[in-house]
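pasting input
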Amino acid sequence: MSTEESTAGRGEARPGGGYDVPRGGRSNFEVWSWVFMRVSGVILIFLSVYHLVWWNLVVGVEHLDSELVIDRWANPLYRLLNIALLTFAMLHGLNGARYSIEDYVRKPGLQLAVKGVVYTIVIGSLIFGIFALLTFDPSILTNR
Amino acid sequence: MIHTHTYDALVVGGGGAGLMSAIYLSRDPSIKTAVISKLYPTRSHTGAAQGGICAALANLEEDHPEWHAFDTVKGSDYLGDQDAIEVMCEEAVDVIIELEHMGLPFSRTPDGKIAQRPFGGHTHHFGQGPVRRSCYAADRTGHMILQTLYQNSIKNGVEFFDEYQVVDVLINQGRCVGVVAYEVSTGDLHVFNAKAVLFSTGGFGRVWSITSNAFANTGDGPAIAFRRGIPLEDMEFYQFHPTGIYKLGILITEGVRGEGGVLRNDLGERFMERYAPTMKDLASRDVVARAINQEIREGRGINGKKYVYLDATHLGKDVIENKLPDIADFCRTYLGVDPVKDPMPIQPTAHYAMGGIPTDMNGRVITDASNTVLEGLYAAGETACVSVHGANRLGTNSLLDLVVFGRRAGLDMARYCLEAEIGPLPENPTADIEATFAALLATTDGEPAARLREELQDVMQDEVGIFREGKGMERARVKIRELQERYAKVVVMDKGTRFNTDLMEAWELGNLLDLAQVTTESAINRTESRGGHMREDYLTRNDAEWLKHTLAYRDARGEIELRYKPVTITKFQPKERVY
Amino acid sequence: MAESRRKPTEAGRSKVRIRVLRYNPDTDKQPAYRDYTVSVEPTDRVLDALNAIKWYQDGSVTYRRSCAHGVCGSDAMRINGVNRLACKVLMRDVGAEVVIEPLMGFRIIKDLVVDMESFFAQYRSVLPYFVNDSRPPERERLQSIEERERFDDTTKCILCAACTTSCPSFWANEEFVGPATIVNAHRFVFDSRDDAAAPRLERLNGREGVWRCRTVFNCTEACPRDIRITQAIGEVKKAIMYGQIA
Amino acid sequence: MAKEYRSRSLGTALRYKGREGMWTWMLHRATGLGVLLFLIIHVIETGLIVISPEFYDEALLLYKNPFFRIAELLIFFSVLFHAANGLRIVVQDFWPAVMRRQRQLVWAATAVVVIAMIPVTWMMVAPLFGWADEPGTGRHLERCRSATTAPACVLEGSAEAEAL
Ligand SMILES: Cc1cc2nc3c(=O)[nH]c(=O)nc-3n(C[C@H](O)[C@H](O)[C@H](O)COP(=O)(O)OP(=O)(O)OC[C@H]3O[C@@H](n4cnc5c(N)ncnc54)[C@H](O)[C@@H]3O)c2cc1C
Ligand code: HEM
Ligand code: SF4
Ligand code: F3S
Ligand code: FES
């Protein structure tokens, strides 16, 4: 029995390319934001837990006052840590908020609007916070 | 609503056989091909096949296609056509390599080749002892074949009509010109006009009550063809697989025995040693199934019940978890039995149709003993009867049949499509099926189809099952007649057009009834025992009178007429079969 | 099988209430529950109970089914709030009241039958087939046992969609390719013989690709084939990440 | 065509019976968004210090309201849970093989949070009922003793005042 004709072109797609290469978004934005979430998250564990433990359990909220804060901010290292905490938390949270918005606000126009509002608020408060930390002048305490 | 489509080639059925031919057809973009399937193709029952697919690759030990051919001929109880068997066993090697090149993830040997294991009835040196010939992918070989073929169909851009049920074949001026399909989700009828049509609609195990077959295996293809005057070949040969899960019929692959599992009766005896001294538990299926039934009849079923044990506990956890994971899962899910620790309760289960639509080696449907081809109509897979399985199919040879003859049919259809013109549709192509559906839907006060189906399955199990006998089959014949009459007043409760599976089930019952009738008539007439057809009133094989294929026709009055066709014998002369 | 096991003579039967969420868009305004009482054996499958309803009480109850033993992927549905194959859940494991609802997130065609077209379209979008355009050897391509093992888990997928329709990210956003698609990409990405990992990963790196997965594990819990889906997704994510940024 | 019906909304999630992975995801999301909201408020209020420390001290009275203590506790819990669960996610992401034990990992992360919350809750709630001193009382008194400029550093009538 002859089998010649049947061995021709085994396992091949049909000539002329039967299949298309799928197109995804060509950007790497999602992978970067994913990695950023992990990296910032791990850093945030230290920063945020330290922050919480310090103010809530070591200092105690009852004892909080502007003087304490000013005292602490007098040290540039603490200010830097605060900037880091603020920045990472805001960006991490912002991207997290983006995930939720993209999930639950499906109408393209509305999604854009909601993103606009949320981004403005988060980035606005981030800038305001950094601005406060940078322009803060510890001498206000002594000046008083 | 009626829609009309025109294609060059139509493949009816998206199982292994259908997809293999579709892949070959799709290689030539000038041939417009569509696959029509009542299930999403990946739901086809090919996916349930577990054990493996045989080819004399000789990856682990010496092996030759001739040995494979001999085993197949012997397995068929010499009823298989030897020219076709030779082709299948020769091409097996090539087609397995082709499947591997298509990406099929076979299990591997330590040196990276396709792994192979022993299987029932497969031997070296013409029957000297078991040989490792079955290529496998754990215990989901069929699943991997089906997935791989579907994947390649997508790759080749094959067009699919999923969940379209073909309900009629259009034959006009002596050739096949298309089919009529029912779009299940809408209830619309579609007329497909084509040059070549392939039927690969799988088996019809749902004729029996204990079966390894899916609900969808209702034999639509053969039944449709039969009603349009095409004969059915060797319908009395139906295989009962020795090891189905007790009561459920779910298959426990022969691979379990291939790996070393053994059958035990109530006394704990490994009884196959008595029935098949050389091959023991790996004897051919008909032999093992009969041995089990014999044990049960003689009271050695477990606790006197209708089952025996398949014991794999000595294989160890590793073999079971790695080589037979799905089986382990079935046993745990459905029986609460862990095959690592306990034996599995099994009983023979209706499994495979050796008979079907007669074809030649290129899948072309033939209509009589002199092999007259019905132009434009093809069949492949379990639906077809080439005949490579004769009176009894060897394990793993069905998957092989699908791919070898699916491929050959695809190639021949491609050739035919390039040279033939499209034939004209008959007048009013949907009239008959519309009348059928209308009648089914018209009844408001009658019996549910399910009741008839159950009665049919019970009588077939009892009287036209593993052991058969003239009087019992007469009873079955009468019962089927009665059921056919009652079928006229079956009630379809769902009168809607949207996804009306109630209507489809009722229509499928009509197919089961017709096929049961052909099976019974063919079996009553064959007064001998051969392979899957075992008669207690004619215990021996009778080559002098019965070394021939049955061809069953439906005559004008709806009666069944039986004719016969010689068996092709080339190298292997009929001998007594001992394992 | 089911048929013979349903004979009322057998002992150990009990009455069970089956509550099916029915919906036929041609006649109903919205989906509504309907109750049926059937007599079952503890070892009957939920599919057997549905069959008992369809065959003898209400033929219009509609669902898909074929193999009846968990290998074809037809009958994924929500059983008591979780995605399951009706043929792989036994009645003794679901209690005397069973609530059956269609998969969530797909259009309902009728009752428990949902429109799977978008599911298969997603699947097709990741080149779910073997690609190696080099000239094949005369015999099989070699692959070691370990290389074969690498992607074994994801070859088991039967495309039942139980995973995708259990995924909160998918419920929210049907453009998300969904776990099943990623599973089927994984099967080829980690196949040592395949050459097209790059375009698949590119597709999955897109906006609606793997990064939408929030490791919720609903998919893994729902998979009737016990595929460790979330792990497979994780492996794909890592592959993309190292490919893109390292 | 008849009306299309599909189950796809925020409420959909509530109708599915998910397991550990699902409820931790919901909590992770809720705590993340909650903490973000708090953070925004917190930043604005702390920033006030630049404008006017006195104004800041006024604003602080809000924190010192006993009812706000519960909110603080919630924020503490949120950050801790989000952190522990986030760490679990990161570990799974970089070693996918550990997902075989995903349920146990969820319980481990939850256990860490619960165990940590026991002393935290005690420290933050007990003072409200006078069962324990406010956290940091010792340090605070220290500062008051040495204070030169501290305005009203001891609350009148408080336990601290007596101790002084
Ligand atoms: C449990 C089990 C295990 C098995 N194990 C093995 C094994 O290990 N080795 C081996 O060699 N063989 C095995 N077999 C046998 C083998 O799997 C089958 O014979 C073979 O898969 C049949 O393939 P097919 O393509 O002919 O049909 P199927 O795979 O059954 O496909 C039939 C197709 O036809 C379609 N169809 C049916 N009716 C219609 C219609 N009216 N209109 C449109 N479409 C229709 C269906 O949708 C389906 O796509 C096993 C069988 C079973 C049941
Ligand atoms: C404390 C340490 C933190 C860790 C370890 C951490 C970790 C993570 C991780 C890994 C994710 C990604 C989840 C995912 O992709 O499925 C995430 C999401 C998120 N995080 Fe954090 N995070 C931390 C702190 C914060 C803080 C301080 C905020 C608030 C400003 C925040 C807000 C969010 C939000 C809103 C999400 C999105 C949730 C979602 O998509 O379901 N996280 N976090
Ligand atoms: S991965 Fe599992 S749940 Fe998902 S489609 Fe495949 S088999 Fe179904
Ligand atoms: S449920 Fe969905 S979010 Fe990821 S882990 Fe599974 S795909
Ligand atoms: S019917 Fe096939 S998976 Fe349930």
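fyi Chain B touches chain C through 69 residues (CB under 8 Å).
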